[in-house]
Amino acid sequence: MLRATFAGFSTAYSSLQENQKRLDIVGQNLANMNTPGYTRQALKTSSINYTHTVSHYSNGTETVVGFGVRMEKVVQLRDPYLDGQYRDQIQKSGYTEGIDTALNRLANFLDESQIEGIRKAFDNIQSTLTNIQDLGKINDPVFESELRSRMQALTNMLNDADRQINKAEKDEFSRLDGTGTNENGAVQEINDILKQISSLNRQIKDNQIFGQQSLELMDQRNLLLDELASYIPIEVSYYKDMAHDGFDANGNPALGELYYVDDNGTPYAKKEWPDDLRVEMVYQDANGDTQRLLLVEGTVGSGTDNIGQVDITDGSVNAPTDIALTFTGVSQNYKGEPINNNVLVFENNNGTITNQFPPSSGSVQASLDMLWKDGETTGISDVRGYEFYRNQLDNLAKTFATVVNNINIKGSSKDAGGNWDETQFLLSDKTGNPPNWDDITAANIGINSNWSSGVVHLGNAGDSSNNTVLNLIQAMQNSFPLNANISFKDSDGNPIIFENSGNIGSGTAETLDLKNNSFSDFMNHTATIMANDTFSNQQSFKTNVTVLNGIQNSRDAVSGVSLDEEAANMMVYMSAYSASSRLMTTLDEALNILINNTGLVGR
After folding, report:
1. What is the pTM of this model?
2. Residue 276 to residue 205: CA distance in whole angstroms
3. How many alpha carbons fall within 13 Å on the CB side of residue 152?
4. Residue 42: helix, strand or coil by DSSP?
5. Phi and psi (nearest 5°) for 239?
């Protein structure tokens, strides 16, 4: 039995079309090989089978051949698993990069390996004290003025260090809300990304419903998802909307939502309906349990109904550590049902953090950790934030002022009532009026104005007028807490008890703890902590970037455009196109023989 006259032409024609389309796709791939986020495209095809009903009743000896190739659609070559791995890893890279930026800010003024700073100021004070310990210099106003100048330099450096920490905290706050900068903060970036994803979700689905794949729009969306993952931890999933998920309103299987069915309910073709995209933020609640907040829900509702947002609801650039972030999730799920408890607050209530992200989960968490955490807990992964270094400086300032003031007060003459003259302190809270040293910090430590005006002097009472200076020299050399065998003698020859302001003479000792360091060594101790944290974080950052690049290389192997591969494909498709053209010519020759030369014998 002869086949249909022009059947072979349709086969050759479909091959010509298919290879022409493949060449078009090669051109598109090569044109965009340097376009950020572009995903390599390919043509999905299938063979056209011979399935006409009449064939079931025709000659059984007939050999059936298909009718060529069908072009299904243009697809992206992408691995969802690698996408998930990349986004998980970019969270870690974003976190360690954020911590690295913060620690570098601190290193600019706390790392004294290259600059003369607070440690050098302590050394200068000790050198001056050593110089004036001679009895002939104790009452010399020139040498006392030099000591006062050295202490003034120290207090200025402590004040400046505290100001630098304040500035670093403000900069960190600005990284979140953009205050004082010409760029958006992380909060604005997150909200902007969510809005763009919302718009792209609707555009992509609308286009795909009408047969347009919108692959370039999907590339834009994937880039946005990667960027969003650098800020906060997210999980991305795809699903069918309620009308095409395969279940009815009661949760029972609905075959007609997934397949075209005949009058008997038998499926005969699968429905092609585009997927929706869902984005969830991963976090840990107050109990440490992992939870998720829905930030993007496909194309539900209209406008921005399908996305959530984040807002800064507390704190300001002048009170950065009071910052609170409020995430508001999508208000309804893909079925249109309301979602309760969709508001999530990240805040620090007197050291208790209500909600937090999993470890190393994006740059937003890095900023919150640096603003909130003081490094006082014992967790191995605990972060030493700005407050840790402020507390270190405050402790140093408080301890130094307590020691110096007690030594000078108890090295001076007593008042008429036989009590220590508590006005004879050298270091004070410079914001106090009148001068006092009730609550000394690095921010407010200064020289007692009465010392500058000559009302207060360096103590010279006791058996020897240089006892106070010798005590101060010993204090500069010793570590705190003091060894039990070490004591300082007051003007009466009794051991000095280091008491707080307002408690002089009470016998209640103030806690002095510099982690077994002297004043100057405590700055080395603090700088070493910062250096170790910086080194550890930098190693983690390098590792994270290396792993991230490895995953990106794996993604590029699947999704990236290879010049060599596309050139090879171009030759293959061109050869197939030429062969299909030759087949068309051959079939034309065969048809010519059939029409013009068949049945001419005997004429």
Report:
1. 0.88
2. 7
3. 11
4. strand
5. -155, 165
Burial class (CB in 10 A: 0-12, 13-18, 19+), 284: middle
Residue type, 300: V
Q: From CA 21, how far away is CA 585, in angstroms rounded?
A: 21
* Region at 64 (left for phi over 0; alpha for psi -120 to 50; beta for the rest): beta
- Helix (H) and strand (E) counts for the chain? 12, 14
Strand partners, 282: 292
Angle at 531 (CA atoms; ends 521, 539), nearest 5 degrees? 160
Across the chain, which has 603 residues, the per-10-residue mean pLDDT values are 70 92 96 94 87 54 74 92 96 96 92 85 95 83 93 96 96 88 90 96 91 92 97 93 64 65 69 86 91 93 90 90 94 85 88 84 94 70 88 96 95 86 93 86 95 91 84 94 83 90 86 93 93 94 96 95 94 94 90 80 61
Q: Which residues neighbour 357 within 8 Å (Cβ) at sequence distance 6 or greater?
A: 232, 233, 282, 283, 284, 364, 365
Is the C-alpha dihedral spanning 30, 32, 37, 39 positive or negative?
Answer: negative
Domain ranges within the chain, ordered by starting residue:
7-77+561-596, 84-90+182-375, 99-175+387-532
Those residues with Cβ within 8 angstroms of residue 373's Cβ, 6 or more apart along the chain or in another chain: 382, 383, 384, 385, 387, 388
User: Which tokens sit at 192?
Assistant: 């902007």
